[in-house]
Amino acid sequence: MKVTWVLPGEEEVVADVAAGLNLMEAAQNNNVAGIQGECGGSLSCATCHVHVSDAWREKAGEKGEFEEAMLDMADGEVSDGSRLSCQIIMSDDLDGIRLTVLT
């Protein structure tokens, strides 16, 4: 299944990602600049902040209450499409998803 990370400057990183892997880990596995994941995906740092486009938001799922709170500390512009990529789990429904990396 494919994931595309759009970096500042519009450069793209496209990778095959296995179902069940969170998209922060997938970004790190594919050397996506701007996705630090300092907390290792434990939902305590907001360094894996991405924007999910309108077309993918429903499929990516709802933000949890704790994720919303962590996004208040995120770098970059926080919007309705803001998500922590550690909280998005790859599935067949997400094949082709595009995420915008903010930093």
What's this model, at a glance?
The chain is of the alpha+beta class. The chain has helices spanning 23-29, 54-60, 65-71, and strands spanning 2-6, 12-16, 49-52, 82-84, 97-101.
Describe the structure.
This protein is of the alpha+beta class and 103 residues long. It has 3 helices and 5 strands, in the order E-E-H-E-H-H-E-E. Strands 2-1-5-3-4 form a 5-stranded mixed β-sheet. It is globular, with a radius of gyration of 12 Å.
What are its keywords?
alpha+beta, 5-stranded mixed β-sheet, globular, 103 residues
What is the rounded distance between the termini?
25 Å
The main sheet orders its strands as 2-1-5-3-4
What percentage of the residues does DSSP assign to strands (E)? 15-25%
Give the helix/strand class: alpha+beta
Q: Low-confidence parts, pLDDT < 50 over ≥5 residues?
A: none
Shape: globular
Query: What is the helix fraction of residues, given as a range?
Result: 10-25%
What's the helix count? Answer: 3
Write the SSE topology.
Blueprint: E1 2-6, E2 12-16, H1 23-29, E3 49-52, H2 54-60, H3 65-71, E4 82-84, E5 97-101
Parallel strand pairs: 1-5
Antiparallel strand pairs: 1-2, 3-4, 3-5
